[in-house]
Amino acid sequence: MSNEELLDVLYDAVVRGDRDTAVTQVKSGLESGVAPMTMLFDSMIPALEEVGSLFETGEIFLPEMLVAGRAMQAGMDLVRPHLADETAAHAGTFVMGTIAGDIHDIGKNLCNVMLEGNGFKVIDLGINVPPEEFVAAISEHKPDAVGLSAFLTTTMPELKTTIDALIEAGVRDGTKILVGGAPVTQEHADEIGADGYAPNAAVLVRTVKELIAA
Amino acid sequence: MDITPRDRVLMAINHEVPDRPPIVLGTSNATGIKMATYQKLKVLLGIDAPDDYLYDWPELGTAAIDEETMLRLHSDVRGVLDLEPATVLGRNRGREPHSDYVDSWGSGAREIKPGDWFPMVHPLASATTVEEIEAHEWPDMTDPTRIAHVAEQAKQLADDGQYAIMATPWLLFPLERAFAMQGMDTFLMNMVIYPDFAEALLWKLQEMCKALMGPFLAALGPNVDIIKIGDDLGTQESLLMSPDMYRQVLKPIHADWVDFIKARTDAKLFFHTDGDVFPLIDDFVDMGIDILNPIQTSAGKMSNIEELASRYGSKIVFCGAIDTQRILPHGTPDEVRAEVRRVIDILGPTGGYMVSSVHTIMNDVPAENVLALVDAVEEYGREAARR
What is the pTM for the complete model shown? Predict the structure, then answer.
C-alpha cells in the first residue's frame, strides 16, 4: 500500500468509526516510516473535521459520532508518543470537566476528542469536578482555555460557583472559560461571566480557536 | 353541572375542547415533582403530609404527592404504579447507607452528593454477544409483590370515578433499559459496532417488559384510562439516532410494544420521549400512539409548537410543553403565567392538549412557579376554552 493509500484508508476508518482498521493503519504507518505528523494532519484531523461537519448537517448522529471519536482516540493513543510536545499542543492547552454534582459526560468526551484532534492538549478532570480541582488544574497547567460542562438545570448553578471560585483564587484572568451542556445557553454564559458558549463539539473547537486568537 | 376531571381528560384525549385543558401532574416520574420542590410546596400551602416517594424509591427522588396537594394542583389524573419486588425493596432499605442502589435488573444508581443519585451502575457494560445476554441473571418479572396492590388501587379510583387513571410501570422502555444495562454511550456505540447484539438486547428487554406489562394490565382490567410508556429519542438539538436507524431497529420494537399493550387494554397510549423528536412524529402516529409527551419546547424544532399544532394537532394529543429548562426554574410567576397562556393559545384549540411540565419539576423550581402554572391553567384555560 502506498503512503497515500494508507492515509486514505485511515481517513475512511476514522470517518466510519472503524477502530480496528484505524489502529492497523496507524501501526503500519509507524512501521513503514510514515511521519506521525503526516498521519495526524493529512488524514486523521481532516477525517474528524468531516465527522464534525456530517454531524452538524444531520447526516450522522450520536452513535456514529461516538464510534468515530473512539476510532480517532485509538489512533491518537498510538500517534501521541511520537509527537513532540509542541506539536501535540500546537493549538493550545485545554482543561475540561463536568462540574460538581453532575456526572453526564458523553458531550464532554466528544468535545475532548474534537479538541485533541484539532491540536489541543486536553487535560480531562472527569465528572463531578469540584471548583477547587479546576483551580488546581489551572494553576498547574496554565491552560489557554477551560471547559465547564453541565447537563441539568439543577447543576447549572455550579457553573457560576466554579467561575466565581476561579476568580476568588486569582486564576480566572489568564485563561478563557467556555461553558456547554444541554440546558446551557449563550445568554446564561454571558450572565455568569464565561467567555464563550458552545452547543456542540464542532462549535466548541471553532469558538475556542477564535477566543484564543483574539 | 361541572364536568369531572376524568371527563375533561377523556375529552382532550378525543380531541374535543373541554372546559379547560386538563392538568397532568404528580402521577409518574416524568410528570412528577422532585422532593425538595414538593416540600417547598407543602410549606407554602400549609399542608402537612409525609415525604413519600414514587415507587417507594427515595433514590429516584420524585415525590408521591398527597391528595390535598393534588387537589390544590388541580391535577386531573391519578397514578397507578408498580413496585420493585418486596425482596429488592427490602434489600435496598437494609443496605449500607450511601452505597449503590441496585434494582432487580442489576442496574442502579450511585450517590454523587448527599441525596443526589445518578444511574451509573450498568451490569452489562462490557457485553457484546448474545451469549452474554443469555447468561445474565434476569429478574423475575412475575414476582407477585410487584403488582399486588394494583387491582385494588385502580378499582378504588375507578369506583370514585373522579379522575382519569394513568398507569406507569417503571421504565418498561426498551431503549432506556438498554442504557441502564450498558450505559448510554456504550449502547449507542454498540448499535453501530455490534448491531445484531444491540438488536437482540432490545428484544430481550422487550420480552422482560412484556412479562410484567401483561399481568399489570390484567390487574388493572378496565380500570385505567392511560398507559404510559416511552423511550427518549431526541437530544437538545436533534434526534438521538438517525431516522433510518430508528426505523430499522427501534420502530419495529416500539410498534410491537404498542400492539402488545393495545391488544390487552382499551386505555390510550401515552408515549414519553424527550428532546427534539419532530422528525419522528409521523412514525409515532403511524404506530398508534395516542398521546405524545413531554413536548420539549426548549429542544430544536419542538420549539415550533405552531407547526406541531397545525401538522399533528388532529392526529396526536400533546401533553407537556411547559418549559422546565428555563421558564419554570428561572422565570418569575408572571413569566410562567405568560408562557402557560402562550402554549394554551397555540395548542389548546386543537382540543388534544393536556398541560404538564416538560419532564419532572426539578428541585430548582420555586413552589410559587408551580402554583402559577396550575392557576394560569385554571383561570386562563377556562377563558380560552370559552372563546
Answer: 0.94
